[in-house]
Amino acid sequence: MKPEIGSDQSGGQITLSAAWQAEMAVYTPKAAFCPTLTGLAPPTAANSIGKFALTRRAINGFAETGDSVMQTVMSAPKPRETDLYPPVKALLEGQGYEVKGEIGAADIVAVRGDEDPVVIELKTGFSLSLFHQGIERQAITDQVYIAVPRGTGRAFLKAIAANTSLCRRLGLGLMTVRLKDGLVEVHADPGPYKPRKSNKKKARLLKEFARRTGDPNSGGATRQGLMTAYRQDALRCALVLFDLGPTKAALVAKTSGVDRARTLMADNHYGWFERVATGIYGLCPKGAEALAQLGDPDQATSKEAAPDTQG
Question: What are the φ/ψ torsions at residue 176 (nearest 5 degrees)?
């Protein structure tokens, strides 16, 4: 929708000169409507500073018109729920539905023959109340959609992805409406949710559960600082090196009961170990400090873990 063009002090419209429009076309081939001031001259050798210049008349005119022109340029009318109705209605009518607005508590109701009615809830943006309304309408019919204006930018694309997933989980449909041309896009149709299970994630979860000794972490704690099974194995290796000094990796594995001791000490994620010779590892001061703080994982699993970004 074009914003209103302001007027100058003489009462005439504030428009672009033909020469200036031509100049602007070079730099803004896809520029949206942009009201400017009478007296805004295209750059010439006499009046140009850079590519764009204001004449004294234009500057004076801008001061006289005050905020009216700036409001025209900077502000845009906020979308209303009623702006979504015509495009959504046209889409449904094109599929053979009879469509009516504001039937009972529903924003839009569409009926086609003996099929279940389709209900669409309109909102100017995603909100918890919108999903609440959609769920309430499912008491009437399974064919419930929510519709919002389509935005732009990365943030909106992330919102669409997240809310499409949420709609599928709730059994709701999702539409977006591009208000500038009335394009309606259906991102999800109503239907029962069937989550795809990940056997790999399940196996990883159960493996960590089985390998972790005791219950050293409080549920709800942040990820950083958790005592993982990997850290417990590292502590077992560190304890062997603390008692025996530099030791062959095979002996560390046998004494600690950690089959992956060689790989764990070679990777050295925590900086606790050092290789003193081929196949022989020792304990670094940092490892001794961690061992003093955390202790034997098989005897003191409830101690608070130090910050850990690995495992």
Answer: -125, 150
User: Are residues 168 and 215 located together in one domain of the fold?
Assistant: no
Q: Which residues of 204-224 are buried (b: 16+ CB within 10 A; e: fewer)?
A: eeeeeeeebeeebbeeeeeee
pLDDT in tens, 203-224: 988 888 888 888 887 777 666 6
Residues 6+ apart with CB under 8 A from 189: 173
CATH of the domain at 164: 3.40.1350
Same domain membership, residue 95 and residue 69: no
pTM: predicted TM-score of the whole model, two decimal places: 0.48
CA 114 centroid distance within chain: 40
Q: Which residues does the chain have with pLDDT short of 70?
A: 1-76, 221-224, 300-311
Same domain assignment for residues 52 and 104: no
Print the domain residue range for 33: 18-74
pLDDT at 236: 95
**For 271-280, what is each residue's pLDDT tens digit?**
999 999 999 9
Residues of the chain by 3-state class (helix, strand, coil), percent to 5: 40, 15, 45
Supply the pLDDT for residue 230.
Answer: 93
| CATH number of the domain encompassing residue 237 | 1.10.10.10
Return the pLDDT at 191.
86
Both 68 and 147 in a single domain? no
Task: Give the model's pLDDT for residue 173.
Answer: 94
284-287-290 Cα angle (round to 5): 155
Whether 65 and 151 map to the same domain: the answer is no
Amino acid at 278: T
Same domain, 50 and 139: no
Interhelix angle for 56-65 vs 67-74, to 10°? 90
| Amino acid letter for position 126 | F
Residues 55 and 133 placed together within one structural domain of the fold: no
∠ CA 306-310-311 to the nearest 5 degrees?
Answer: 105
d(CA 37, CA 40): 6
